[in-house]
Each structure stands twice: as structure tokens, then as C-alpha cells.
Amino acid sequence: MPTKSEQRQIALALDTIENSITIEEAAIEKTTALKRATMQELFTRGLRGEAQKETEVGPMPESWTIELIGRHFSVVSGGTPSRKRSSFWSEGTVPWVKTTEVNYGVVRETEEQITQAGLEQSAAKLLPPGTLLLAMYGQGVTRGKVAILGIEAACNQACAAINPVDDRVDPKFLYHFLSFRYEEIRRLAHGGQQQNLNLEIVRALPVAYTADRGEQSEIVAILDAIVRKIDLHRRKRAFLDDLFRAFLHKLMTGEISVADLDPSSVGRKTTSELTQEGNR
């Protein structure tokens, strides 16, 4: 049984981690609110100080255009190889994305992989890096979320895979615009108990954009910078959660002693280290 002095040291160390977690949670909330406000400003006012006009998607700069996604992008779905065929799944090497993995970010790895036979003998398609994915259905808040492929991968039939057929709209610009329109997109779903989107609905989604690709790129750069900040705070929060559990376990099992504690250094991990981890 630790002495009272030792108990105080343990409590201080754990409190230090918990306080750091609280700080990161507040930073995530604040930066997420900044992202929402910035999207509202960028997609309704642009960057060129133009007058606004009212449209079906709300106010936007006078020179901007509204067109359907299907005019400038191909929109297809994927497929699921038969689970009854082990040859479609066993020792698979083709990354296969499910809607639960479409969650506002870059998909660099997947929970499941399919084989080449599974790819060729199903509706699944091999998609290039940079493909924009939109979850057409899924549990809870999944429907309507978007992500971008950072790898060559296939996806299931619940995902819409979106790729440009011309250079009018930057796919990253579309990614951020669809993120901005998340709630409106969800309301377009229909069906029975589980309401879904479909390819027809996705192709008919309006996108408001500037023909100035330079302005599109500037908007993408601004939002990407905020997203990187949010991701950094999330990684720091995840690191602190893991640290708290590991720290508590090692104290309880005697792997570390109270004499080893240095509360001032608990939870210290540099921003550059976490940034490097996020870029891997």
C-alpha cells in the first residue's frame, strides 16, 4: 500500500495527464468551431470581396456558379465480394473501404482487404489516390460524410466514389464544400427505416464554385491548415488517453514506482513529433 505521500504523487501525476486531456478537448472544440465559421465565410463570401447573390444553396459571391456534381465528376459505387468465398478475402492485399472509414480525412489504410479475385469478380473497383468518397448510407451520423483516398483502394457499395472528368472544380475544393453542406445532404436521403442516399442523388448535388482555380486553391489551403490543426489536437488527445491507461496500469502492477515519477514531464510530447506521426 503506497504511503500518503506516494498517493499524493500518484494523484498529481494522473491529474497532470487529465488536465492535459481537458486542454486538448477544449482546443479541438475551439478549432472545430473555427473551421465551421471559416467554411461559412469562404463559401458564402469567397476571397475577392465580391457582392453576394441569393441562390438555391444560400448566399454566394456574384461571380460564382452552381452546377451539379455529375456535370464535372464521374460518380460510381463499389461492391462487396461474396463473404462465402474465402478466395475473395483470405490473404487479401487490396484495401477495401467501408463507410465507417469515411470520416473527414485521408484514408491511408483500411480494416479489411480483398484479393485480386474478389476485386475482379464483384462490383468493387480499384480507385486511384485522390478519389473523393461520400458515404451514401450507414449507421448514425455516417451518411453524408466524406473522405479522400490517400492510397489505391476499392470500396463497398455504400460509398460513392467521385473523380473529376474535367478541370473545372478542384476535388479538394469539392471535398470541403460537401463537408460544409453535410446537414443539407443528409436531408436528401430517403427510404424506410434506414434512409439512404444513392448515386442519382449524389450526381444531382449542387456545387457552388468559382471559375478562378487560384481562388479555389487558396480556399483549400486555408481549410487544410485548420484541418491539420484539428488533427494535431486529436492525435495529442489520443496519445494522452493511451498514456493515462498505460501509466495507471504500470503503477498498479509495479512496473514503475512512485520514485520514478516526474509530474512535470508527464504527457510531454512535442508538436513536431505528433506532426511527423500524422504525416506518415
Automatic annotation (TrEMBL):
Signal peptide range in chain numbering: none
UniProt xrefs under Pfam families: Methylase_S (PF01420)
InterPro entries listed in its UniProt record: Restrct_endonuc_typeI_TRD, Restrct_endonuc_typeI_TRD_sf, Type-I_RS_S_subunit
Keyword DNA-binding: yes
Annotated Type I restriction modification DNA specificity domain residues: 73-237
GO MF annotations in UniProt: DNA binding
GO biological process, one term: DNA restriction-modification system
Keyword Magnesium: no
Keywords: DNA-binding, Restriction system
Transmembrane segments: none
PANTHER family: TYPE I RESTRICTION ENZYME MJAVIII SPECIFICITY SUBUNIT (PTHR30408:SF12), TYPE-1 RESTRICTION ENZYME ECOKI SPECIFICITY PROTEIN (PTHR30408)
Family, similarity comment: Belongs to the type-I restriction system S methylase family.
Protein name per its UniProtKB record: Type I restriction modification DNA specificity domain-containing protein
Originating organism: Caldilineaceae bacterium SB0661_bin_32
